Amino acid sequence: MRRLSIPLRALLITVLAIGGTFGLDPFRNYQLATAAACFAAVAGLTVLVGLTGQLSLGHAVLMASGGYGFAFAASAATGPAILVLAAGLLGAVAVSGLLGLLLGLAAARLRGPYLAGLTLALVIALPSAANTLPIGGDQGLRAPFLPVPEALTALIAVEQWHAWLAIIVAALAVTPLVMLRSGRAGLRMRAVLDDETASRLSGVDPGSVKTGAFVASAVPAGLGGAILAIATQQVAPGGYGLAFSLLLVVAAVVGGLGSIGGAAIGSVLVVFFPWVVDELVAAAPTDLGQRLDGNLAVLVFGAVIVAVTVLWPGGAARLLDRFLAARPRRFATPATNTER
Amino acid sequence: MDRFVFLFSAGLARGAVLALFALSLVIVWRAARVVNFAQAALAVAAVYAAFAVTAATGSYSAGLAAGLASGALLGALAERGLMRRLGANAPLPGIIVAIGLVMVVQAGLAIGFGPEHRPMHPPFSQRPFVIGGVPVLSPYDLFTLIAAGVVMGGLALLFNRSSLGLQMRAAAFAPETARLLGVRVSRMVTLGWTLAVAAASLAALLLVPNELGLNPHAADLLFVNAFAVAVIGGLDSPAGALIAGIGVGLLGSLVTGYVSASASPLAVLALLTLVLLVRPGGLFAAKEARTA
User: Fold this and answer.
1) Engineering a disulfide at B193: which of A209, A273, B75, B223 sits with its beta carbon 3.0 to 4.6 angstroms away?
2) How far is A276 from chain B (nearest CA, A)?
3) How far apart are CA B80 and CA A82, in angstroms?
4) pTM summary value
5) What tens digit of pLDDT does each residue of A264-315 get?
């Protein structure tokens, strides 16, 4: 099979995914929208960690910033729904891109544990920031409700419409990232990861590459936050805590760092698996069920990322490659042991 | 002025706990070149052990001893069981495995003991002494300061004045050479983890009675602040951990008192960002080799 160009493949997958929403009930469609939001953020994170070796524990905050940007801009815009949506998305891109730029400027000067610590402090400071800045405190902001267009009201429910929007926004967020990754910018990132001195000698400035990678990773995460704001009609700091940030890391690691396909697998897993576990736990006796509720999934996720990192670096993406009869990869995907 | 004295002394006790925890992170970093993101979770697991022993025997010191022992054991287990299996010189897998360990330990504790906050009683009164009409340290704060100070002094003596400390430093700085000279490097790394998690457990034990109660996430904030402290001081520098610990403790206490409690994490974040932008390796970091 000839390799299709990236935008064409993205279009094909988007159409398939939108077709797939017809087979799902409203709650499943809502979960699909959540998974699409996670996918956008995890794709950004996995490129950042896998290609440049910068571990961010703060991608939930970048998502939140996108959500706030969406809520602000979309609430301010008036006119047809499509304009409101476009304004919101632009707001999400602007706010998350700006925050990503600031973080990236810091990241360019920092190495592994220092950057991880800074982003960790950022996650912890989010609720305080929400209470200090004029962004609605713990209650957060309301995002405008986007109703189903007239022409489609007979055909689909609102959850399905939001799933469509989620899929389209996720496609808009991830496709440029894929192109960036397989193009010149991706090559530069790998060069900087392999050897900063050598890349500097070849005229690639590590600082600007790292900063650029952070921005390129922050914008999809912000659009992911915008998707969540569309699906839930609100954005509040409580939803973007440390646990959620770690969940994004889990998705990236389980999927295989650096792999976009792996990011998709990982984000579906982190959205659906806790729900499946909670359904199972609901059958347990009340006292035990209360203790297991929410914790069992975290326990399993923790064990899985330890096992994947120790025994199977490369994650689900490596498994997938094996099934696809080992076509030679154009670039070796760096495993988790990337940074020195 | 009264208020300043009160906030200052409260910040001093907080800073001592922060400095102790940050020091434990520095010990692991120096021994194994990883930041142990699981330090807080392991420490809280040790506090649960101390809580159980205190509840069973009614003696605080028995609980303290049990907590320190189980902290040491958990540190050794984490190093031997997990961290050793990762490639050397690669911080990323170490951080990710530690995060996985956090999730396992915290979820395991929540499943085993339930998510509720259990009140933990301090061995001394928390009512502050009043000197000249001004409330200053409470007896428990004093106990905290002394315990943290004694342990930090002991660790300094161990590292700088004993042959075991010399071996540990040699193993951390030049593993190959140290091995050739007969130092059991892998044993030294395990010992570093053991000491570090025991020290972290003590810090968590000292902290918990001042907080809402014992729960699986009781030391999360302590870890984040202590990590910020270790980074501000320079991950390599025990003295940096001490100075930055006291400094951040005072900053947190004063900002909480004069501005608001919710501004305190923001102040720490701002200080961390500022220090990292001016000196990316922390305030007291040794100079790194030039790369270009």
Assistant:
1) B75
2) 17
3) 57
4) 0.85
5) 989 998 888 888 888 888 777 777 777 777 788 888 888 888 888 888 776 7
Q: Do the domain assignments include residue B290?
A: no
| Domain carrying residue B196 | 2-125+134-278
d(CA A65, CA B33): 33
Q: Any CB–CB contact under 8 A between B276 and chain A?
A: yes
Nearest by CB to residue A309, choosing from B96, B107, B111, is: B96
Would you say A40 and A325 are in contact if contact means Cβ atoms under 8 Å apart? Answer: no
Which residues on neighbouring strands pair with residue A142, listed in sequence order? A234
Q: Does B35 touch chain A (CB under 8 A)?
A: yes
Residues of chain A found within 8 Å of residue B265, distances taken between Cβ atoms:
121, 124-125, 128
Considering only CB atoms, which chain A residues are within 8 Å of B264?
128
Main-chain dihedrals φ then ψ at residue B134, nearest 5 degrees: -110, 125
> Cβ(B173)–Cβ(B90) under 8 Å?
no
pLDDT for position A96: 95
Q: Helices A242-255 and A59-76 meet at what angle, rounded to 10?
A: 110
Here the tokens at position A241 are 């805590």
Beta pairing class for A141-142 and A234-235: antiparallel
CA B192 distance to own-chain centroid: 13
Within-domain flag for B251: yes
Token pair for B284: 């007291």
Number of separate domains in chain B: 1
Q: Indicate which CATH number applies to the domain containing B267.
A: 1.10.3470
Q: Where are the domains of chain A?
A: 6-239
